[in-house]
Structures are given as C-alpha cells and as structure tokens.
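Design job #97: recover the sequence.
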C-alpha cells in the first residue's frame, strides 16, 4: 500500500481571487488536473492542497473548503491553509471587541486532523506592529508559498501543527526581529554568521575522526570494508602463492636442520651445520624471487593516481585475488548528505564539518601501489643482513641455572684426597673442551664464534672448592667416585643447554629469524596492496566527493564571514575625493525625512548614523535642490565612466546610480 509520505506534488490554490470558479466538484477536479498536467504529474493518491486565503475567507469560502476536504482520492486528503492579512476586529453582535490579529473564526470543515492553518498576518515587513504600509509584499508571499510547496516540508509542517492547539500556528519571528534596534539586530546576525562559519584554524590542525559507528551505512562500508578484506589474497595456483610457498618451505627445512644442529650430534659432526647453511642460502634466493614479485605488483598496482581496473587486472595476472566491490559505493552521495546533516545537527561549525570531511577523504581514499614501494627497503637483502648481524652481535647470556650446574659439577668432581685429587680436573677440562669445540663448529669464515666464559670459571671454582672440602673432611673414595659421576651428569646437561643456546644465536645471526620476518612483511605488504584495490573506484569517488563537500563548506564559511564583516565607514573629514563629497551625509537631514519631523522635536530631528529612516517619505525641496546640482569642472575631470555605487546611506537609496547626476524632475 502506498504511504502518504509518497506524495510527489502539492496542489496550490489561491482563494483570494477566483474562488467563485471552484463552486463544483468537477471544477475543483479540473483545476487540479490542469495544474498537475502542466507539471507532468499523474493524479495523486494522497492529495496535498496548499490554499492561500484571508482570515475572512475561512467563512466566505466554506463551500470551496468542503469540496477540497471531500476530494475523491485513494487516500486521505491533506489541506494546509496559508492565511494572509488581519482578521475582522470585532464579533458579530458588536458587544465584545477584539484587537486586530487576535481573533480567528474557523469553520467546522477545517477542524479535521488532516487540516492545518498557518496565519502569516501581514507581509508588509513592518518594523513594529504600529507601522502600516500598503500593500503586502508579494515577493514575501511567493517565497513562503514555494517553501510550503515542497512535499516533505508540507507534511512536516502539518505534523507539527497537529501538536498545537486547534492546529493553528502564527510565525512570530518578525515581531521580535523587527522590533529590535537596527544596531542590535545587525550585531546579532553578524555574531550568528561568525559562529556558524567557525574559526579558520588551518587545514593541518588535527581533528577528531568520526567513529565508524556514526558513519552512515554507505560510508561505513567503504571505510571498514577493506579492513575485513585481504584474507586469502593469494590465489592457490598463482605466481605469488607459488613464490611464497617455495620460500616458506626453504625456511621450514632450515628450521628442521636447526633442530638437528642443536643436539649433541650437531656439536660433534659438521654435516648438520652444512645442511642448515645450504637451506638458508636457498631461502635467501627464494626470498629474493618473492621480493621481486612483490615489487612488480607494487609497480603495477597504480601510478601516481588511484588504482584502476587495469592495475587490478595486472595484479590478477600475478596471482593476487582482489575481492569484488559488492556494490559498496552506490549511495555515496546519500551517505555524505546524511553525515553532513548529522554533524551540523550536532552544532558543529562549517569549517569543523569541512575538516571532518577532509579526514574522511583521507581514510577512504585508496593508496596506489607506487606509494608503498618505499616500504620494500624494510625487507631488502641488506635489511635482512643487518638484522642478522644485530641478532649475533653478542654471545647469548648464560642462564643462572647453567652456572649453578657448572659450579655444582666442579664441586662434586673435586671431592678427592691426594693423589686422586687430579680427578677434580675432569669437569673443568670438559667445559673447556666443549667451549673450544663449539666455537670452532660455529666458526664464521676465519673467525670462531665467541663462547661464554661463565661456565668454565664456575667449573674451576667448584673444583677448587671441592678439593678444599675433601682436604678438610677426608671423605672416603666411594664418595669421591659418586660425586664425580653425578658431576659428569650435571656437566652433560649444562653442555647441552650451552650448545642449544649457542646454536640458536648462531642460526639467528645467519638469518633464520630475519628471513622469516622479511617473508611475513612482504606478504603483509601484498595483502595491504590488495586491500587498497578493493572498491578502488567507489572509494576514489567518495574521497573526491568528500573533498568537494569540504571545499563547498569552506567557501560557504568564507561567504558567511564576508557577510558578517561590518561595512567600513568613511573617515570623518575626508572630503574632496569624489563628485558627491559636497553632500554631507552625516550632518544633512535625511533624504526621506520631512521638515515637520525636525520641528516636532525642537529642531533635533536629524537622524544619527545607523538609524533607519521612515520609508515612504520624500526629500524636501532643499534636499532636492542639493541633489540636483551638477558637478563642477573639477568633479567632471575626476568622474569615472560606468556605474558608480553611492556611499552608504539610507537603505531606500542604497543602490547603483549612473555616473552622472540625474536631472531633477
């Protein structure tokens, strides 16, 4: 079923003239059909009638209102009556008097819930309620009628009228605004325009980004949609996935060789180290191939401009999968309008809203692939080598448990009496031999790996302490033999831990950790490139539209500032620079002030600068004679051709005049 809000046109009828022609239902229907036909609109299912009438016409045109309220249509008929003018000033019997503009007689036909009245009063732009000017301003009525002819405005006004007593409203802005002094009103408007424009703090100042939850759905999809993409950015059968898998497999084999190297056979035999170095060399070559593919993808992923469909096709040829846009940018314009309405509704100034739109453009705009090329340096071969050297810059720190085991092994192995005390040297000698063998096994070029000195020192100190204890306590031989066996066990565990840590440190120095980090970084760079290509055209359109809106808002703010700037006044005493400088606008009587007005206040009837003169008054004979004077030769020589704006004076004569003074009529 069609909703009443689906109405597409407002039928306008003026009953102030020609109401007699609408005396039959057919005449009303013909008038409606003629108006809609000229506009190219069909017969509405839910008619909206905007009727212009006078307060007295509410009772004089009861027949016309009955015909309109009974207009035959599919849905209900809505009527909004715009009343212009004053109501009758007294009741029918004359016993009770009413002030003008205070009493309104409304027939029963116009008391339905689908009818509302807007009483505009007079449209003569009177400064106060006591001022009476004739006739009404037709331009003011035309603007009001055009505004109420918008279907959305019509429905909104009618809904708001239902909340008021008797569904009648009278705009009262004129009563307050026109009664204010001119200086106060102008200052209030300037302040309001300045606040509405906001402060120009510079485009580079930070601004709070609108949370994603507050963004309209079309914009939120473009901002957050790319963050959920990038999973599975490599096609299984593509070049990118093949290069990545080859490098990852080489690194996996290197990890397996490292596990073998960390065991005791790795300490004793050099074959496992050779296998690890071969796999690391192969991984470096495979990583170089994957890095070259990533570089080609970045160079082909859009130039200085945003990514294009051709760039997306080139990425597809490299085995990268760019997700579809999923119609993400169909309602970008609607989303921008909704966001602007939300921000302005929150009370933000124009320039602040413009900053939010600029920030939104930066968030949603796609980044071309060439803008990501500089990040390849973070994963280059030199970077991998530099990272490996940093990892292997110093030997691994010896854990405290290893030092305790070395000291305990030396102590237990030294519990001997002379001449068996020489057996106390077994544990320290084992630590020294393992250190020399391990350093030689992890040799890099001509330089042997550095081995930590802590375990050897602890073993020697433990052996000395054990010999001293044995000399003082004189233990039996079986106790010394048992201590030596336990000490050898502790030595084996300490050596295993030392070799494991040394092998890990050496492997990190050879690049196992740096190569894995570089591979993951390059793959993340590819994923980011694919995310930037998602809905690139829609996001670029959204970014351009957001920047356009921001520019329009800043231009509007600049125009508001220009309107709010007070007009400069001519400096006092500056004369002789123009053909009209003899006319003293500051001290001479107003051109629209009668001589009687000056006499009525004791000769002080001259208006001060900024006071509004009374409209409708004509200049006196003395003033007309001054305006009719012709410029002298000096003035004619300084006269410029074309039209020349008159200096600021009374509003009624603030207009452009010809270059010559008009002759007095």
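Job complete. Output follows.
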């Amino acid at each position: 079923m069609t909703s009443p809000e689906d109405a597409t046109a407002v039928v306008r009828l003026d009953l102030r003239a020609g109401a007699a022609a609408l005396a039959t239902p057919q005449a009303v229907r013909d008038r409606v059909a003629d108006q809609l036909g000229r506009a190219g609109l069909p017969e509405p299912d839910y008619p909206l009638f905007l009727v212009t009438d006078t307060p007295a016409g509410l009772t004089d045109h009861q027949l016309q209102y009955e015909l309109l309220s009974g207009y035959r249509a599919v849905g209900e008929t809505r009527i909004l009556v715009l009343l212009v003018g004053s109501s009758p000033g007294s009741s029918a019997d004359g016993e009770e008097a009413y002030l003008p503009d205070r009493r309104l007689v409304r027939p029963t036909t116009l008391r339905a819930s689908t009818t509302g009245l807007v009483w505009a009063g007079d449209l003569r732009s009177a400064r106060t309620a006591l001022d009476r000017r004739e006739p009404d301003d037709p331009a003011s009525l035309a603007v009001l009628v055009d505004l109420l002819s918008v279907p959305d405005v019509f429905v909104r006004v009618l809904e708001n009228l239902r909340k008021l007593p008797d569904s009648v409203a009278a705009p009262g802005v004129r009563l307050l605004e026109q009664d204010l002094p001119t200086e106060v009103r102008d200052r209030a408007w300037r302040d309001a325009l300045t606040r509405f424009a906001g402060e120009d703090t510079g485009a580079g100042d930070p601004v709070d980004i609108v949370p994603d939850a507050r963004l309209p759905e079309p914009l939120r999809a473009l901002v957050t949609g790319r963050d959920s993409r990038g999973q599975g950015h490599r096609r299984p059968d593509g070049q990118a996935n093949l290069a990545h898998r080859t490098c990852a497999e080489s690194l996996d084999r290197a990890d397996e060789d490292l596990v073998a190297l960390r065991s005791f056979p790795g300490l004793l035999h050099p074959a496992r180290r050779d296998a690890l170095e071969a796999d690391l060399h192969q991984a470096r070559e495979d990583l170089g191939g994957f890095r070259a593919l990533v570089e080609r993808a970045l160079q082909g992923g859009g130039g200085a401009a945003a990514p294009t469909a051709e760039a997306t096709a080139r990425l597809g040829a490299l085995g990268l999968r760019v997700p579809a846009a999923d119609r993400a940018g169909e309602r970008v314009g609607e989303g921008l309008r909704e966001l602007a309405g939300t921000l302005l509704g929150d009370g933000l100034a124009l320039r602040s809203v413009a900053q939010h739109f600029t920030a939104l453009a930066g968030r949603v705009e796609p980044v071309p692939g060439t803008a990501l090329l500089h990040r390849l340096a973070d994963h280059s071969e030199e970077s991998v080598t530099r990272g490996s050297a940093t990892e292997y810059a110093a030997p691994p720190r010896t854990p405290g448990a290893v030092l305790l085991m070395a000291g305990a092994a030396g102590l237990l192995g030294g519990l001997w009496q002379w001449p068996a005390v020489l057996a106390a040297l077994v544990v320290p000698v084992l630590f020294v031999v393992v250190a020399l063998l391990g350093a030689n096994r992890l040799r890099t070029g001509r330089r042997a790996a550095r081995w930590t000195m802590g375990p050897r020192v602890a073993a020697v100190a433990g052996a000395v302490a054990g010999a001293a204890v044995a000399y003082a306590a004189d233990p039996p031989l079986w106790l010394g033999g048992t201590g030596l066996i336990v000490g050898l066990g502790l030595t084996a565990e300490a050596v295993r831990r030392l070799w494991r840590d040394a092998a890990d440190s050496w492997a990190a120095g050879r690049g196992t950790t740096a190569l894995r980090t570089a591979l993951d970084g390059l793959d993340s760079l590819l994923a980011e490139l694919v995310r930037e290509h998602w809905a690139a055209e829609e996001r670029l359109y959204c970014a351009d539209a957001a920047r356009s809106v921001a520019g329009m808002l800043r231009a509007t703010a600049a125009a508001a500032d220009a309107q709010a700037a007070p007009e400069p006044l001519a400096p006092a005493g500056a004369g002789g620079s123009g053909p009209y400088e003899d006319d003293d606008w500051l001290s001479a009587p107003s051109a629209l002030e009668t001589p009687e007005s000056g006499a009525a206040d004791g000769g002080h009837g001259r208006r001060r600068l900024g006071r509004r003169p009374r409209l409708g008054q004509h200049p006196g004979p003395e003033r007309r004679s001054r305006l009719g004077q012709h410029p002298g030769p000096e003035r004619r020589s300084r006269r410029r051709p074309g039209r020349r704006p008159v200096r600021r004076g009374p509003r009624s004569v603030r207009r452009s005049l010809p270059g010559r003074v008009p002759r007095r009529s």
